[in-house]
Amino acid sequence: MKHTVHIIIVICILLESLANFANASEGVDKVYHPYVLPFEREFEWRFSSRKNDDGNALLQRFAYGQAISEYVTVEVYLVGERDEEDNFGLHSYEVETRWMLTDQGEYWADWGALFELEKGHERDSWEVTAGLLAEKEFGRTSLTTNFLITQNWGSDSIEKLQGEFRLKYRYRWIPEIQPAIEIYSSKGFLGIGPAFMGIKRFDGQQQLKWELGFIAGLNGDSSDHTLRFALEMEF
Q1: In the chain, at which end, N or C, are there fewer CB atoms within 10 A of the end residue's CB?
Q2: The Cα angle at residue 73 between residues 72 and 74, in degrees rounded to 5
Q3: Domain ranges of the chain
Q4: CA-CA distance, 234 to 39, in Å (whole number)?
């Protein structure tokens, strides 16, 4: 109970402080964990469908990643998006680097860093993101937080600096099924909803991860909700 009260207080402080800093939200994606497996390789597919007053936006990411050391992994994405005429095509390219800053259990919380560079397909549109990742275990529950800063530029993009906060509070019931609550926050957007994730381990480092979440935007009278799903095969 004491841990739960502390977690609620921390969440309220973080949401309030970030709301005073951030610009408009770019939507719901995922909450990153700070961990890297030594010499891991992975294939990843992420799907999200966001429905709001502007319509229904469909986004998919296909990626291959590989650890270049026991603390750093690099992942390359192809990002597809459905346009206003319901045609699905290539939207952008991304290079993502995650850096595990501390060994698991070394300090009070486990820390990592995230760096992303995105280039629009056939457009002069660029985006760079840097973030701090943290995770803390409380018994059979885990609290994961992401603090992200993004800068956009280019003649086909609106130049802006924006911040975002993401949170996942997860109950580690069994490895294959772990229910959670997720929160996404930035100025002009606050989303919260249930999520589930699981891990199926095979021989060695081989494992299959899955995630499913439904995030409802709490933005007054406007309708805004996102369904997201992800599969990740590590080997």
Answers
A1: N
A2: 130
A3: 2-234
A4: 10
3-state secondary structure of 187: coil
**How do residues 57-67 score in pLDDT, each as one tens digit?**
899 999 999 99
Question: pLDDT by residue (tens digit) across 151-177?
Answer: 999 998 888 899 999 999 999 999 999
* Both tokens assigned to 125: 């549109």
In single-letter form, the type of residue at position 196 comes to F
Residue type, 204: G
> Which of helix, strand or coil describes residue 185?
strand
Question: Which string of DSSP letters, residue by residue, matches 28-52?
Answer: ---PPP----TT-EEEEEEEEEEEE
Superfamily of domain 2-234: monomeric porin ompg (2.40.160.40)
